[in-house]
Amino acid sequence: MVAEFHLIQAQIAEEHSQKKVTYIDLVRTWPNLRRMILVTMIQAECQMTGISAIQYFAPQIFQQIGIPTSTTLLLTAVNAIIAFAGTSTCIMVIDSIGRRPLEIWGAAIMTVTFIINAIIIKVFPASNPSTGAHWAFVVLTWIFNYVFFVTSGPLSWAIPAELFGTAMRTKGVSVGAMVSFAFNTMIGQVTPIAIASIGWKYYVIFIICNAINGLFFWAFLPETKGLNLEDMDELFRDSPTFVPGSKWKPSSHLELDAERIAQEEALKGNAEHIENI
Predict the structure, then answer these.
(1) The pLDDT of residue 109
(2) What is the pLDDT, as a whole number, of residue 208?
(3) Which run of H or of E encompasses 226?
(4) pTM of the predicted protein model
(5) Which helix (H) or strand (E) holds 248?
(6) Buried b (16+ CB within 10 A) or exposed e, 85-97
(7) What is the pLDDT of residues 219-247, one digit of tens each?
(8) Coil, strand or helix: which one is 126?
(9) Are 150 and 88 in contact (CB under 8 A)?
(10) Half-sphere exposure of 27 (CA within 13 A, CB side)
(11) CB burial of residue 213 (10 Å; 0-12, 13-18, 19+)
(12) Which of 29, 112, 133, 146 has the fewest C-beta atoms under 10 angstroms from its C-beta?
C-alpha cells in the first residue's frame, strides 16, 4: 500500500512538471479526443435514456393512460426509494461485474421497458383506461428507474472521472458535466411540447436512443474494471478504438513499479541519513 502511494505521488509529480493543461489539450491528440468522445457520449446518453422526462413530467406522462395526478405523485414518490436501492446496488456490483456490462445490459433493459410502455399508451389511452394497463405501466416505469440507477445514473459520473490522468481530469469532467446539463435542459424544454403533440410516439425517441447507447458502449467503451488511474494513458494510447471484446490488459506492472519507487525512496532516505551522520 505504501509502495502504491509512492507510485501515485511520482506520477502526480510528473504530471505537474508538464506544461499547464488547457481545454485544447483535451482534443489535441487522438487518445485524449477518444476520451472526450466517450465522456460526452456517456453524459448525453444518460439524459437521453428518458430519465429526466419521466422525473420532471411524470404527471403528464401518466395522464396519457388515464392515471390521475394525485395517484401519479404518490407513485412517483416511490422513485426516491428505487433510486437509493439502485445506486446502492451499483456500488456493490460495479467492481465485480464491470462498467461495460452494466452500461450495455442497462441500455438493453431500458429499451425494452420503453417499447412496452409505448405500446401500453397506444393501446390503452386515457379514453380507454385499464387498471391492468395502469399497473403494468407503473411497474415497468419503476423497473426502468431501478435499472437506470444501477447503470447509467451513477456510471455517467463515475466513468468520466476514471478516464483521465490527474492533470486533465478536472477539465475533462467539467466538459462532460456541461454536456449533461445541456441535454437535461433540452429534454426539459422539449418534453411537455412533445407529449402534447405526439403522445406515445415521443417514447420512440428514447427507444432509439437507448438502443444506440447499448451498441455504442458495446463497440467503443473499454472496460476499466481493475485498472488503475495510472493505466489510463496507456489504455487509450495502445488499445484499439473498436473494443467489442474489451480484453485489453496494461503492460505496466503496478506492483513492480511501486516496489522500484519504494526502493529508490529508501535508498534516498539512507543516503540522507548517512550524510547527516
Answers:
(1) 97
(2) 97
(3) none
(4) 0.83
(5) none
(6) ebbebbeeebeee
(7) 999 998 888 877 888 889 888 899 987 67
(8) coil
(9) no
(10) 8
(11) buried
(12) 29
Q: Which residue has the cell 456500488?
A: 91
Residues of the chain with pLDDT under 70: 1-4, 6-19, 246, 252-262, 268-277
Domains of the chain (ranges, CATH numbers): 23-250 (1.20.1250.20)
What is the torsional sign of CA 41, 212, 152, 8?
A: negative
Q: Cell numbers 399508451 label which residue?
A: 121
pLDDT score at 37: 96
Burial class (CB in 10 A: 0-12, 13-18, 19+), 122: middle
Sign of CA dihedral 247, 252, 254, 256: positive
Q: Give the integer Cα–Cα distance in Å for 46 and 60.
A: 21
Dihedral sign (CA 253, 254, 256, 260): positive
Cell of 83: 433510486
> Which amino acid is residue 126, in one-letter code?
A
User: Which of 72-77's residues contact partners 24+ apart within 8 Å by CB, and which partners?
Assistant: 75/138
The DSSP call for residue 22 is -
9, containing H or E segment: helix 2-17
Half-sphere exposure of residue 184, counting CA atoms within 13 Å on the CB side? 13
